[in-house]
Amino acid sequence: MKHYYTASEYKKLLxxxxxxxxxxxxxxxxIVKWFDDNSIKHKSxxxxxxxxxxxxxxxxxxxxxxxxxxxxxxxxxxKNSVNELAGNFSKTDKDNGRIMREFARMEHMDNCxxxxxxxxxxDVLDGNYRxxxxxxxxLRTLLxxxxxxxxxxxxxxxxYMGKMIYELCKSELDGSIMK
Length: 179
Hints:
Elements: H1 7-16, E1 18-22, H2 29-37, E2 41-45, E3 52-56, E4 68-69, E5 74-79, H3 82-90, H4 93-106, E6 111-117, H5 121-125, H6 135-149, E7 152-156, H7 161-177
Helix pairs in contact: 2-7
């Protein structure tokens, strides 16, 4: 979709962007409300990997000749806390395997983000979570995932989650049209 856009064309392109919300994503009312309050288009769709991505619908006037989905190269995985993530890593092999398969799929993607609500890296380092997972093991797991997948990890307060997801999608769009 490499194309040079005027300011007004870019604005139209951005306004046409649709954020994709995985149908299994739970407890995201604040995020969806932020999208609605800010006139950000969104729709539920089953995503193979991640909780959020985006698409640009076909618009011949803007040089978009078919619906363009970014979920094969760009995803946002959201966890509502360090507790949830630590719990995912320390569950039984069957449950742990699901999240590890999800992260393994990210190895083949260009741009992956993990956003963790409300907590900070200090919670990981200090062991401020409910899990038998050792804080050193937890940190090493996160660092290994970053190295293997290029995963970017963000700690974001609840009230900024919608904006952060939107800005990550917008940044990916900017990068894809300006390459």
